[in-house]
Amino acid sequence: MRFGVLGALEVWSADGETVAAGGPQLRALLAMLLLNVGRTVGVRRLVEGLYGPQAPSGAAHALQSQVSRLRRRLGAAGETGELLQHGPAGYRLLVDPDDVDVHRFERLAGEGRHVLAAEDHAGAARLLGEALGLWRGPALADVIDAPFAGEQAARLEELRISVLEDLVEARLARGEHRDLAAELPESVAAHPLRERLRGQLMRALYGSGRKAEALQVFEEARRTLAEELGVDPSPELGGVHVAVLRAGSSPPEAAGGGVPAQFTSFVGRDGDLERVRALLGERRLVTLTGPGGVGKTRLAIEAAGRERDEVRFVDLAPLADGAAAPQALINALGLREAGLVPALSGPLDPVERLIAGLADRRVLLVLDNCEHVAAEVAALARRLLAACRDLRILVTSRERLGITGETLHSVPPLPLDGGAPEALGHPAVRLFADRAAAVRPGFLIDDANVDAVLRLCRALDGLPLAIELAAARMRSLTLEEVEARLDDRFRLLSRGDRSAVPRHRTLRSVVGWSWDLLSRPEQALAARLTVFSGGAPLHAAARVCGPSEGEVVELLADLVDKSLVEAGGGRYRMLETVREFCAERLADDGERERLRAAHAAYFLESARAAEPHLRGPDQLEWLDRLDAERGNFHAALHWAAGADPVLGLRLLAALSWQGQLRGLPGERAAVAAGLLMTVGDEPPAGLEEEYTLCLAHAAAADNVHDRRLRDHLERLADRRLRYPFLRVLRFMVNGPCHADGEVPADPWSRAFTRLESGVKSLLAGERDTAEEAFRAALEGFRGTGDRWGVLTALEQLAGFADGPGFAALMAEAIDLAGRLGAVEDLTRLLVRNADGLADAGRLLAARAEYERAIEFARRAGTPETRAGAQRGLADVARLRGDLPAARELYDRALRGCGRASMGGALTRWRILIGLGRIAEAEQDVGQARLRYRQALAAARAYGDRPAAADSAEALAAVAAFNAAGR
Predict the structure, then answer these.
(1) Residue 725 near residue 658, CB atoms below 8 Å
(2) What family is this protein classified in (predicted)?
(3) What is the mean pLDDT of residues 716-726?
(4) Considering the chain, what is the average pLDDT of its residues?
């Protein structure tokens, strides 16, 4: 016999026939017993569940009557009365839990979540889908008026929605974005306050290429939450919003989590694709080799896009120096650096940052275009693979890396065996047909033209890029004209560089032929566009390349039509092979330096225009704009370091606040060091602030500049500073400083001055004055719209609050950190919030918050903040009495926390106190005294005791031990 409560109550016999369960009271009784199957339910609980707390007299006798009737019905259905047993404590229904849909549902849901956590997304989708398939309607639908039923139905509905969200998560991981984008709106409408569902709908829409609709879902959520609950979206939903805002036109999840979306279909590489996927399942380092234009990048993207693990795509083509490869990976992985000031205590090792960020993380790194930095990439890959056991790397290069464990797959040209009868099935011919039809709608290959297409593809050696370039000419030429011109061009170029490999010569011939078919204005623009790194928006292309925006618009459209330039997301970019060829033409024209100067001047102007907005209400929008031009800023800085150091100093300074908000010291350290070598030991006239900021950036990688930096900050102690980050830097290194005692004119500077004043008062022990100053700073930063300032002031004010006040301040600060994408700040705030929960005795909530912090610290690649969260988990385990687990967590945290910074000292301090508490609980007096004294010594070694409350507590504990003579 089987039973169902997930819908109207149903009973089915062994042969599947429906069994009548009786009237409302009998059905309600059976439902209560089914919800507690196998467990004894007391008489009083049954009576209250059927009749309410104010049960009428005689309710107990009525219950006995209902039980007797239920026994008879179960017996009539072929079961004996032994199914329903009576004992001193009450009644118990003896049924296999798997024969009751609600218990089967809960079992499948638990198994599905376990499998989902193990990243078996297909298995999770199957189990969770089966669980949800048991629902026939609202739970307890026909007994919902019974007193017990409302609470139980609400509990089951909550569980159902939670399982639905888990199922959606599994399906998103499997790439079912389009299906979910169609299905989820109905669920969101039914549950408008479920933020996880909203976030999943946003991800599904974005993964389907519907970014604008995804952003609209967030705005609807913000409005609904404000109207219904008076709250803002959670940090999790805010994080999805920020991720969608920052993303370009390439949906990361739709294309495998960071893999660029493609504009054309994938043709002719099915065998190679299966081979590469098989290799990725067996090997940790796979390198795709072959000549330029053979399709290595596209094959890598297609293979990576089918992976279930997290995928990160890194294009190394823009790198001029292999030493920059680690930083490129840091950027692709979204590993935020700690900021400039902590680095003053020692150099930042980007490889160690990568290792920390990839530890315990299942990631496939796709490193594209590695041939010009192969030696450095080989060394980097060796270190990462040795340190990160769940990491895999897929490389594309014209040559192998040449390290142990590397598996090679040579990507051949598209095959062209056989003659015309088989030609229609050739991948090369199908590729030409597909691309030609894109520019000439209705183009088909038939018996009349198949020979010409086959000859053309053979002349191009089956190279995909060459075939695509030839097909693009079908927009303005006939097939016969394309074939004739190509044949002439190859004869002309047949006596080229004989030392080059044949296919490289062929590719160069094809690109050269395509170049020669451009008009002179088109050639000029194509050459000038190569000054950009990572593409350019239209306005930038027009300003730098000229002659006028109108002409550039027309010429860009022509270059897009001819497949020399790709357009997407409001940007124009070139394939790297085409870019290299066109860049050579720019060098021939002698224009390179002029254009580099114009490029750098344009992006200096852009950085200066953006800088004030980074402290206002449009902060996130302008950060996204600057993020989109990261490659161009990098290129401009590198050029200026050698050619125009004054411009370089100004550009670095203009970008300094963006660097503070995004945590980018390592990315600009090398160029800062180069600028210093060019400029010398003293700043150019009028550039004292810019020079000091350059010293700060160089200090992020080389602490030899620490003394010089501190000296220059001291020189600026009495100046009203133009650059906000220089004020922050001076404040953090030299302490609060008020220039001339004047109140600053601009609102942001006034707010920051109040922040400095609050810290000064706090250090002097004037808590009331400090709190007042922090509140004024908060009000000022809110007025400007600077989320960083608001977050900083909130964090300071949280130190003056407790209970609900502390929780409210921390909730807002956590939300702001999520919106800013400041993962390290978010981790620190989560730990602090969890500490507050633990202090309030809410240990389960604290544990969940510490676990969230550990996940964010893992993403950020910050072992120090991760150690702080592990320390918190250890505290929870200790307070719950699990001393072995606490000791293991403390030991793990102790290995990960640093000694040089205040944060590391505080974490180490609290770990040692926790170990002392364990020793004390185990009555190991000597070990307890040792740990407490180590904690005090660790604090004194840093120069300050990090936490007065813990200090007093530890001192009291040591004193108590000493007083007891132990």
Answers:
(1) no
(2) Belongs to the AfsR/DnrI/RedD regulatory family.
(3) 82
(4) 82
Domain formed by 519-587, architecture: Orthogonal Bundle (1.10)
Return the residue matching tokens 């019974």. Answer: 146
Instruction: Decide if 1-174 and 519-587 have a common fold.
Output: yes
Structure tokens at 508: 């160069």
Write a three-state SS string for 536-583: EEHHHHHHHHCCCHHHHHHHHHHHHHCCCCEEECCEEECCHHHHHHHH
Domain ranges of the chain: 1-174, 269-407, 420-517, 519-587
Architecture of the 1-174 domain: Orthogonal Bundle (1.10)
Q: What is the pLDDT of residue 897?
A: 77
CATH topology of domain 269-407: Rossmann fold (3.40.50)
Rounded Cα distance, 525 and 522, in Å: 5
Sign of CA dihedral 638, 639, 641, 645: negative
Give the CA count within 13 Å in the CB-facing half-sphere of 202.
25
Question: What would the DSSP string read from start to end of 3-29?
Answer: EE-SSS-EEE-TTS-B----SHHHHHH
Supply φ then ψ for residue 568, to 5 degrees.
180, 140
Are 812 and 796 contacting, i.e. CB atoms less than 8 angstroms apart? Answer: no
Per-residue pLDDT of 21-69, as tens digits, reads: 888 889 999 999 999 998 889 988 898 888 888 888 888 888 888 888 8
CA–CA distances in Å: residue 183 to residues 157, 177, 179, 215, 245 = 19, 10, 6, 18, 23
Q: Which residue bears the tokens 């002031």?
A: 793
Angle at 53 between CA 51 and CA 55, to 5 degrees: 45
pLDDT over 70 at 345, yes or no: no
Predicted model pTM: 0.64
Conformational region of residue 570, where left means phi above 0, alpha means psi within -120 to 50, and beta covers everything else: left
95 pLDDT tier (thresholds 50, 70, 90): confident
Judge whether 152 and 28 are in contact, CB under 8 Å. Answer: no
Residue 310 has pLDDT above 50, yes or no: yes
User: Is the per-residue pLDDT at 252 higher than 80?
Assistant: no
Q: Which amino acid is at 464?
A: P
* pLDDT tens string 128-161: 999 999 999 999 999 998 999 988 998 999 999 9
